[in-house]
Amino acid sequence: MIEVEQLSKSYGPREAIKDLSFQIEKGEVVGFLGPNGAGKSTTMNILSCIMPASSGSVKICGFDVFEQALEIRKIIGYLPETPPLYSDMVVYDYLSFAARLRNVPLKNTQSAVEQVIEKCSLKEVSERIIGRLSKGYQQRVGIAQAMIHNPDILILDEPTIGLDPIQIIEIRKLIQELALSHTIILSSHILPEITQICKRVIIISDGQIAAVDSLEALTTRLRKGERLVLNVRRNSSEILEKLRTLKKVNAVTEHQPANYTIDCEPNADIQDEIAQLSLNNQWGIVELKTVSMTLEDIFLKLTLEESEVP
Amino acid sequence: MKNIWIIAKKDLGSFFSSPVFYSLTSVFLILNGFIFFNILNFFSLQSFQAQQMRGGGMGLNLNEMVIEPSFHNMAVILLLIIPLVTMRSFAEEKKSKTFALLLSSPIHLVEIIVGKFLACMIVIGLMILLSAYSTGYLMLVGNPEMGPVITGYLGILLMTGCYVAMGLFASSLTDNQIIAAVISFGLALFMWIIGWGSQAAGSGLGQLFEYLSLITHLEHFLKGLISSSDLVYYLSFILFGLFLTYRVLESSRWR
């Protein structure tokens, strides 16, 4: 349904995204996961034809985002990071305006608006001015606006950002309901949130795809453990032996003389023990560091940022 | 066409629900009324004096002495008012990020621009219509020639179109309403007085400056003359302004 190939976008000299390629099938719920500034919003802006890409191609339902933007805009609903709300408008009027903009025929406008008001539980605020609503309601009006023309594809950029825990749960429930009948792409920098809603995750970091996979596959891939690199001055075979005897160490390999890679269990925290060994045996430690495995790093960052999401 | 009206209707709604429109209209009407009153007062004094002498007011002309200067003054007040009407058109959409809603909808950028142009024209047309009581009053108590009155309004409306086109262009450049107002005011004033440069510029360039000036073309309309060269000037001015707006908005998506 959505085919992205070698998509790049640069703002002046800065490359926001580089060579993104992925596919999304009909009915999927896909999460874009990545730390802030990774290029999630840029990708979504390109997918929703707001911004042209610097290079690469995007096809949505066979239409090209650059050549046939008007066709694509008919079948997507987009919620940008800041919901596009006119703060001086009444909710009901705003939604009718959005419906008319999205080519909903005049005679169906009323029913379309009432339907999304019902779905997004906006009944009690439908006559109020948007600027006076709480952030949670505003976010819901934003989602309502995106789905007013019953699009095949919903693109939601950080739909739960800035909400309180109860509002987050409500929005999440709403998205889960929508997932039954729509293809949904949503972005987040919060890992647990994606895990609850999405079946497939695209992890973006520094404008590049770090991983595309189902969640289960990703987690098992990550459970394998940590990797340390040890560099010493002395070169002897006993080092290999001694390292292998350590607890929580799964495997030790020697790539070059006096350069060892140690695979250990997750969160083993054995750096102290290795250093102690080196001191005792006078190996002459030069370097001891954890190897940064990009995916893990990102995951770590994401899990650290907000571990206590309800 | 339908999309243009959807945009225009939405903008009209936000005009009429904001105090900006009402304060601008009040200021416009008060200034306009005050000027009209003084011009009329001067005219009646003149005709009174003329009546006391022999001749009974020969050579005193309602069109020339009241209506024409009123239109001139209206053009000046509009110069001050219109930048304040147009400043929010794109600047506010960009500032509050609502432009994304328009851009992600199946609607062409040209339709957005024309819709906003139409909304501003309707708002200012309404202001001018409200101020037309002065002309109505003159028709009631005197008998002005109607031809120049009608062409006068046509000229004012075309000039308004030029101001609005410049205002939309200025508004598309920035997300700050005040900067948009300042730029469009500067542009409008410059296009008004560009004819002053004609003497310094010499014959060839001077004629060009003279032709480019907004005000020289209005003169003909106020005299009751509709010439195709003036019409072409105003219409191409408006189209060019809207075209520049289009280019600015289009290119801002690439940045």
Quick structural gist:
Chain A has 310 residues and is an alpha/beta fold. Helix content of chain A is 37%, strand content 29%. Chain B has helices at 2-16, 19-52, 62-86, 88-95, 99-103, 109-130, 133-141, 146-173, 177-193, 198-201, 203-212, 214-222, 228-252.
What does the model show?
The complex is a heterodimer of chains A (310) and B (255). Chain A has 310 residues and is of the alpha/beta class. Chain A has 2 domains: 2-221, Rossmann fold (3-Layer(aba) Sandwich); 223-297, VP9 protein domain (Alpha-Beta Plaits), CATH 3.30.70. Chain A contains 11 helices and 14 strands. Chain A has helices spanning 40-47, 69-75, 91-101, 106-119, 135-146, 165-179, 191-197, 215-222, 237-245, 271-281, 294-305; strands at residues 2-11, 14-24, 29-33, 55-60, 63-64, 76-79, 153-157, 183-188, 200-205, 208-214, 226-232, 249-256, 259-264, 285-290. In chain A, the strands form 3 sheets. Chain A has a 6-stranded mixed beta sheet, with helices on both faces. In chain A, strands 2-1-4-5 form a 4-stranded antiparallel beta sheet, covered by helices on one side. Chain A has a 4-stranded antiparallel beta sheet with strand order 12-13-11-14, with helices on one face. In chain A, helix 3 (91-101) packs across helix 4 and helix 3 packs parallel to helix 5 (135-146). The relative contact order of chain A is 0.14. Chain B has 255 residues and is mainly α. Chain B has one domain. Chain B is built from 13 helices and no strands. Chain B has helices spanning 2-16, 19-52, 62-86, 88-95, 99-103, 109-130, 133-141, 146-173, 177-193, 198-201, 203-212, 214-222, 228-252. In chain B, helix 6 packs across helix 8 (146-173) and helix 8 packs antiparallel against helix 12 (214-222). The longest helix of chain B has 34 residues, at 19-52. The mean pLDDT of chain B is 90. Chains A and B meet through helix 2 and helix 3 of A and helix 1 and helix 5 of B.
